[in-house]
Protein: Ribosomal protein uS12 methylthiotransferase RimO
Organism: Salipiger marinus
Amino acid sequence: MRGMQNPPDLRPDLARARISDTRRAGQPTIGMVSLGCPKALVDSERILTRLRAEGYGISPDYSGADAVIVNTCGFLDSAKAESLEAIGEALSENGRVIVTGCLGAEPDYITGAHPRVLAVTGPHQYEQVLDAVHRAVPPSPDPFVDLLPAAGVKLTPRHYSYLKISEGCNHACKFCIIPDMRGRLSSRPHRAVLREAEKLVEAGVRELLVISQDTSAYGTDWKDREAKFPILDLARDLGSLGAWVRLHYVYPYPHVRELIPLMAGASGSGAGGILPYLDIPFQHAHPDTLKRMARPAAAARTLDEIAAWRADCPEIVLRSTFIVGYPGETEAEFQTLLDWLDEAQLDRVGCFQYEDVKGARSNALPDHVAPEVKQDRWDRFMAKAQAISEAKLAAKVGRQMQVLVDEVDDEAATCRTMADAPEIDGNLFIDEGFETLKPGDLVTVEVEEAGEYDLWGRLIASPRV
């Protein structure tokens, strides 16, 4: 039996690009390294789609590329270091490197470490990236050969796709510099989002992962909007397409309650819809800590909201991320967070140890927490979260549920339930009778065994087509 399980420190901001070799003889070819969050992954997909439309090939390795684009992350200092390392590796392996993404907002920081890069552009500056590619590797299209896939170039498996509905954020959290890098909230038009989603589903996508910095605020930046909360209409329309629709980064505004009935309708069917799954960045539970973060200090009311969501949709799965060791966090404040987690009983939990980020206002706060204390609190927090996860998964043994097949190898089929987002949540493994399955299949299983983060199941129904 396969013994895989997700480690408790799996970074929820990590996106893994998957690139297939699509080159023709003599074709100018570009490589891509995509770091950071799924929102950056979507930016990478858009850049590569534009390049493919101009006749460029996409290389899955350094040696086959005429130049390499590195899409960077600049959210945390550790992410910046990872980005610089990736740039250095690309320079060493290829030598011709174009840098874009969030860290590109600090060009001197990049060129100070790597003066040989060909160009540096900031986040979602698609035209500037294309201009840099044109200068480095002139296009040479063949209109009879270079056909662009209907869904564009995807860096995820073809059966699921990230769907970015907005850029930027209007929050002013002291630990975050995203608004400085990506600007204020700017929502894509409803019709444009829906048209992209329709094309993806027509191309075979079974799951749409809705992403933004603040999904529940979608459309509230439109001055002449008809609906007070446009995310509700968008969710209804996306839920009608026949694919699973998973909502990420949803702030717990009161109108989120109006999304829950849509999830209740999808939880018992296999025909798609808004999944009973909410990814909500709570960050902490103590009101004083939340105040120092410049976040709404309403942890008690949040528990009431969670209870209301579960009353309307008992199957709902709640994922969140938290920060421990935030400046000024006392042992009593941390204990409040542990007690809150005990009461909230969240299904999926990630946790970061606080670290300073250049430009963040939290850097100037007094009473920074010692590294060893942060590590101790992280260990205690994750131990509690792991125990909650293990108990919740154990309760699923014996149940039948529909799962989406992600990968099949010689040992097992790796699948996900409605409760599992790709890369950041758990898996369900089928290790008998899986040989005819393929990625993208929707199958029914009976859960036979549970671990701390993963499930194992027995196939009881053939794939749904």
Remarks:
- The domain at 160-394 is CATH 3.80.30.20 (pyruvate-formate lyase- activating enzyme).
